[in-house]
Amino acid sequence: METVYERKVNYYETDKMGVVHHANYIKYFEEARVYFLDKIGLSYKGFEETGIIMPVLSVEAAYKSSAEFDDILEVKTRLTRVTPVKAFFSYEITDKKTGRKVCTGSSAHGFLNRDFKPLNMKKEFPEIFKGLGESTDEAR
Amino acid sequence: METVYERKVNYYETDKMGVVHHANYIKYFEEARVYFLDKIGLSYKGFEETGIIMPVLSVEAAYKSSAEFDDILEVKTRLTRVTPVKAFFSYEITDKKTGRKVCTGSSAHGFLNRDFKPLNMKKEFPEIFKGLGESTDEAR
Amino acid sequence: METVYERKVNYYETDKMGVVHHANYIKYFEEARVYFLDKIGLSYKGFEETGIIMPVLSVEAAYKSSAEFDDILEVKTRLTRVTPVKAFFSYEITDKKTGRKVCTGSSAHGFLNRDFKPLNMKKEFPEIFKGLGESTDEAR
Amino acid sequence: METVYERKVNYYETDKMGVVHHANYIKYFEEARVYFLDKIGLSYKGFEETGIIMPVLSVEAAYKSSAEFDDILEVKTRLTRVTPVKAFFSYEITDKKTGRKVCTGSSAHGFLNRDFKPLNMKKEFPEIFKGLGESTDEAR
Questions:
Q1: Residues A18-49: pLDDT tens digits?
Q2: Helix, strand, or coil here: B116?
Q3: Beta strands in chain B (DSSP E)
Q4: Which residues on chain C are in Cβ contact (under 8 Å) with A32?
């Protein structure tokens, strides 16, 4: 499963180099991840209401070319792997008009409860765990 | 009482115009407000631990000149007025080196409890209310 | 002329109060302003390519209620007035689902050239000035 | 050479989880990098005035524990390696009071001129290249 999240670059996301500041891509990844979960019927807002949080354990980004104000970006997002306690996402950002690769990246997440204690999703939320599992790359 | 909060401009706070993006000054105001409370012995972190939050009801900023990456700014901050249910701050940002005026502004805040219900500070936190009152412009 | 810009709240736009941090509304205003210009056929990107910048001279926001992660906001935007050297916008943000008023605000802008010198739009860019003028409240 | 950059967490840097949003650490890295260059007598502002920019090629961060509003963080920063065309930094963020490890990370940078074309620092700016080289881990 791969989702494509479309996103226009805002003016305030540029820096004095004239292009998108690199920290913003980490935010684009987050937006795209929320979008991915929505598309597989598992909203992150719903997660939090259920008592599941999914903090970022690590993130990495490689910048291929720069994006400018008003560019429309596409963030291709995949859930590469899920375990009972972790989830792994990957991202590829391209310029919609030219297809130019802008940025690639990945993030790892833990499943925690509201008290920041690790959750075993397979045991405590088997339905959600199943839904996530079926949307991973490995399930293809 | 006026406090002077010193703050270097970060690279990521600039935009493609080459100067600090205007939304950042609203953040500088917040930093300066927290600093002001610290200086009068009333930390905002302590407020929240006590069960007091102080959300912004309104904010305004007037931009006089632009600031650049690496500039050192001084945010002069005053608590212009306090009522049992509201507090009003004013700000003046200047460039430390040149004294050039960069931005002025003000913000109004309500006092709420953790459930976002209005607090009467005079009744429920008379000590803190007194401390704030003594630091206002009117108390001078 | 009034445009309605739709915008989902991102996770990273919330703060520890659990709601959208107030500085973000200033960014939403900017997004909505760019959208307004697009809708009247005058892209802000095009402005900059032509050598026109439109820095913010002042901004104000009044917060009516809080917005949360994943809420869909509507930013109603109007160009209240244009002079040869300035433009004035107003904004009203509501929650799309409930219609609840979230935030109102306004901003004033100068017209400058690339060297940050004031432009007289009526003289130097009469076509654009006309287009802006026809989209103001006063033109209705 | 290792520099220690001290940094208080701002309120607006937290998210609804109640802790610093992960994207902000990427910004802290940048602040710490600028601080490092200052300490070795090579300001990044000076770089840009000379015609050198140092965009991020890649960045990664691993989150060890969360930081909260008002915490004082220390960002230990090292220039791990420099080549004529690239520079590599590493970061370790700890809580100043407790010594708790919060985040580690690294970033890779290219040297470009104002037209975004690769620079050979050794040839074109030998003095600066020497200064950087003497501050790397390898030079110890």
A1: 999 999 999 999 999 999 999 999 999 999 99
A2: coil
A3: 2-8, 56-63, 72-82, 86-95, 101-110
A4: none
